[in-house]
Amino acid sequence: MIIANDLETLQNSLLEIAKNGKKIALVPTMGALHTGHASLITQAKEMTDCVVVSIFVNPTQFGKNEDYSIYPRTFDDDVKLAQQSGAEIIYAPTVEDMYTNGFSTIISVGDMGKILCGKFRPSHFDGVATVVTKLLLRIMPHIAIFGMKDYQQLCVIERLVSDLDIPTEIVGAPIIREEDGLALSSRNRYLSPDERKIAPILYKTLQNTAHNLKSNNVSEILAKGIADLTEAGYKVEYLELCDSFTLAPLAEYEEGSRLLVAAWLGKTRLIDNMSVEENND
Ligand code: AMP
C-alpha cells in the first residue's frame, strides 16, 4: 500500500503502474470511510488492476457556516478499510498541495449545480467540480467511481467530464444502506441516538412517495412527503421529482425520473434519492 501526501509521490507511483500497462481506477472520498465507500473500492478493483483512493476534505466545497472544521477525520482506520477493500494507493494531499499559492480557477457546470442541493449550498458544486477535475487530471484514471448516494454530484461529474473531454469513464455505484434503510454517510455519526431512530423515515418517505407517484398528482404527493417528514421531526430543504440525466424538475411522472431529498434532522443534513421505477418494479 502506497500513501502519497503530495503530487510528486503520487505521480512517481503512478508512473510505475502505468509502465506495467495496468488499468487505474480512482475512488474520490473525503475519508471517514464506511461500508458505502468500501463497496466503491471493491467495485473499482473488480473493474481495474490498481485502485487509487483519494482522501481529501475539500475546503472549497463547504460553505462558511458548514461543518468543514468538525468533519470526521479517521485517517488510520481509513487506510485499513481501503487496503482491505483492495486499494493500492491512497492519495491524501494537504490543502497546500491541492491548492498551491494563488489558486484561482473555478470549474462550474452551470444550472445543474444551482438547483436542488445547489440552491442551499451555493458554491458547493463548483468546489466539487474543481477538485474532481484536478484529481482526474492528476491521476488520469481509466475509470472513476462515484456513489449514487450523492446523485446530483454524480450528474455534475458526468456533465463536466463530457464537456471538458476528460478521457475517464465515470461509473455510478449503488447506494449502500443500513438494514433499516438509512443510507450510509460519514455524517450519520452526528446523529443523536434519538435522531438515529427517526432517520430511516427519510428512506421510507422516498419509498412511499415513489410508490404513489405514478398514479397520483405529483405536487400533491410531494407535498404529502414533505408533511410526513416534517411531522417526523425533519426540516425539509427539498423533495423533488427530477429527470434522472438533466435533473430538471418534473411536474408529471415520466419514465426514468428520480426522487431526490435533502432534510435536516437537528444539526445533521441528510440527503437521499431513489429511482421511481426501482421502487415500483
Ligand atoms: P464522501 O466521502 O462522502 O465524499 O463520499 C465519497 C464517495 O462515496 C462519493 O462518491 C459518495 O457518493 C460515495 N458514497 C458515500 N456514501 C455512500 C453510500 N452509502 N453508498 C454508496 N456510495 C456512497
TL;DR?
The protein has 281 residues and is of the alpha/beta class.
Topology:
Elements lengths: L1 E3 L2 H13 L4 E6 L5 H13 L2 E6 L19 H11 L3 E3 L3 H4 L18 H4 L3 H16 L3 E5 L3 H13 L5 E5 L19 H6 L2 H13 L4 H15 L2 E9 L13 E9 L2 E8 H5 L1
The structure holds adenosine monophosphate.
Adenosine monophosphate (AMP) binds next to helix 2 and strand 5.
How would you sum up this structure, described in words?
The protein is α/β, with parallel strands linked by helices. It folds into 2 domains: 2-173, HUPs (Rossmann fold), CATH 3.40.50.620; 186-273, Pantoate-beta-alanine ligase, C-terminal domain (Pantoate--beta-alanine Ligase, Chain: A,domain 2). It has 11 helices and 9 strands. It has helices at 7-19, 35-47, 75-85, 95-98, 117-120, 124-139, 151-163, 193-198, 201-213, 218-232, 276-280; strands at residues 2-4, 24-29, 50-55, 89-91, 143-147, 169-173, 235-243, 257-265, 268-275. The strands form 2 sheets. It has a 6-stranded parallel β-sheet, with helices on both faces. Strands 7-8-9 form a 3-stranded antiparallel β-sheet. The model has no long low-confidence stretch (mean pLDDT 96). It binds adenosine monophosphate (AMP). Adenosine monophosphate binds at residues 29-30, 36-37, 39-40, 146-147, 149-150, 173, 175-176, 183-186.
